[in-house]
């Protein structure tokens, strides 16, 4: 039944390439119309018998799709972490494909207590020196998203926007270099 459902769904999507493949495999337009218009009780009887449908498994495509899903989840989690911990809209738009207005909206929704607007406070002088030292230690991290997160984890009492003020002179324009894990 699953294979039949997928076949009908592909026909309903009306993807010309898929329809062309079906016709190329010997299916006639009449057969496609009959399958598409079949009532559920007939489709069930059709599917339980030898109906000529089989499932092909493409493990490489399955792995690739799972990797895309995992990557999208990791990106969402990274974005949410940075938003919840006070990253500026400027940083968010540099690290993610996001407009300024979307970044501000996310801040209002996910972190309304952090997204007050205005310029963040600079950390005390002695802490700024420590932040710069730790930022230099983290230079081996090729992913800017992970690097800024690790910095924040070391200085969790500070909002990320405050950390940005300290490290900004060192990284101006360099957020997008390297992979974005």
From TrEMBL:
InterPro entries: DUF2857 (IPR021364). Pfam families: DUF2857. This is DUF2857 family protein.
